[in-house]
Amino acid sequence: MKKKKLILSFPEKTVTSPVTYMLVKEFDLEFNILRAEITPDVEGKMHIELRGNDEKINKAIKYLEDTGVSVQEAAKDILIDKDSCVDCGECTSVCIPQALSLDSKTGKLLFDKDKCILCKSCLDSCPVKAIKLNI
Amino acid sequence: MEKTIEEINQKIKKGTAVILNAEEIIGYVKEKGVKATAKDVDVVTTATFGPMCSSGAFINFGHSDPPIKMGKVWLNDVPAYAGIAAVDIYIGATEPSETRGLDYGGAHVIEDLIAGRSVKLKATAPGTDCYPRKEIETYVTKDTINQAYLFNPRNAYQNYAVATNSSNRTIYTYMGKLLPKFTNATFSSAGQLSPLLNDPYYRTIGIGTRIFLGGADGYISWVGTQHNPSKERLANGTPTGLAGTLAVIGDLKEMSARYIRAAAFKKYGISMFVGIGIPIPVIDEEMVEFLKIRDEDIQVEIFDYSVQRRNKPSYGKVNYKELRSGTIKINNRSVRTGPISSYARAMEIADLLKDKISSGKFYLTDMVQPLPLNGECRSLEVLSQEEF
Fold first, then answer.
1. Hey, is the C-beta of A82 within 8 angstroms of any chain B C-beta?
2. Short-list B234, B238, B233, CA closest to B198
3. Which residue of B has its CA nearest to A128?
4. Domains in chain A: boundaries
5. Which residues from B are below 8 Å from A90, CB to CB?
6. Domain A77-134 has CATH 3.30.70.20
7. Would you call A129 and B264 a contact, using CB atoms and an 8 Å cutoff?
8. Is A92 on the interface with B (CB under 8 A)?
């Protein structure tokens, strides 16, 4: 079982295609939609996590691309500048998926990348601007 | 067993003083009891590192040639107050830059100076017989300016508040970003490590007390503004909200940017993280009773910051152990919590102060005058001349 985070961009003509349905039906993949901004007849974006075997994931990506969906690996990441961070914890309360938390022993900031859904809520909460979006 | 500050300082000099931080004392008392702790332990170090808006620095630049009586002054485009003598100014932490808005302000100027970075000084003046120069533009660092010291009118609040938001829009406050409909709540206190929560009746912390301020030796110079000792207290002496405060002073040139950091809160403005450490002498058993305080013994009230009034609705009280768990209950729903003051950095300061004392680089002081134990914080009423 492999996990892969992808950003799918749907051009206008593919917005109405049932792509996520096909991912389950034809490729036997589990998926988790982390973020989606799709309006019919307008370009949409979906941040998705796929779970399944390697071969099926690759076939699914090929299928998506053939349909006209552009597929990018979600290489974006939240980056915490440890030198600037003062471990105040301000970002932890605005982090709904709880990817940011404070170590219960040391009080230092912890970041669990796997839980992060790139909602960016933490970015403007940081009073010392230590959190950046890594592209 | 009672001890004087003088006796404790003798032990520090001999290298035999026993010093614990305010977290370590909790376990020590639990194991050995109050009586033995009062005998064994000499000093407990407390600390806090949080945003403290009521902060700023006095600077004397030295005189230029020809000299100037500075009328309007800017440091990196941040206005400073110059209505004192010719080259004396006060730069407040929250003053925003005229060119960079809320991203840069007085606190950033102070941090830049402490870090040794150069700062652009601009001043204008009317010009007088004794001070003919009408304008000046130059660059200064902490090493080139004549004097610079932090003078913070209100720091180290003895407890604060929990902030939450009942409205259906995100609000941006000095307590940080508060998401709609009770999604999160923030708090700001070092709790069991905090100076005035470990000496709730100001028995050892008073005017004249030597402290750790921003990496340097500092002093408590006066009672802090909005000092409110009459706030409701629990049986253990700790107040459940905004109570005592300290005005503090210390040499900016000796400070470290690790313990003084500028903060910018989106859509609110600028503040400054101030690191303060205060040693508490273990003078008797009663002091141990106060020092053994734990996060679960300290309560604080929850307020709705979406109500834009002086008195905000309360949602009851919680303790700091609950707050640090990451979730509290408000009206029976789970609300995610996060601090805005750094416990990790406060602990670092408490340990640094411990090391300074045990290596004989920091001696304790008797206070010159105690902080008031009575009196309240007055409000400002809006009156016409007739009503007055």
1. no
2. B238
3. B263
4. 2-73, 77-134
5. 176-177, 186, 338-340
6. yes
7. yes
8. yes
Residues in chain B closer than 8 A to A91 (CB atoms): 338
Q: Which residues of B touch A87 (CB under 8 A)?
A: 342-345
Q: Which of A86, A92, A128 sits opposite B338 (nearest CB)?
A: A92
The tens-digit pLDDT sequence of chain B (388 residues) is 799 999 999 999 999 999 999 999 999 999 999 999 999 999 999 999 999 999 999 999 999 999 999 999 999 999 999 999 999 999 999 999 999 989 999 999 999 999 999 999 999 999 999 999 999 999 999 999 999 999 999 999 999 999 999 999 999 999 999 999 999 999 999 999 999 999 999 999 999 999 999 999 999 999 999 999 999 999 999 999 999 999 999 999 999 999 999 999 999 999 999 999 999 999 999 999 999 999 999 999 999 999 999 999 999 999 999 999 999 999 999 999 999 999 999 999 999 999 999 999 999 999 999 999 998 889 999 999 998 8
CATH pick for A2-73 out of 3.40.50.300, 3.30.70.260, 3.40.50.970, 1.10.287.1080 = 3.30.70.260
ipTM above 0.90, yes or no: yes
A86 touching chain B per CB within 8 A? yes
Does residue B377 carry a catalytic annotation?
no
Residue from the list A86, A93, A95 with its beta carbon closest to the beta carbon of B185 = A93
pTM of the predicted protein model: 0.90
A32 in B contact zone (CB under 8 Å)? no
Of A86, A94, A128, the CB nearest to B184: A94
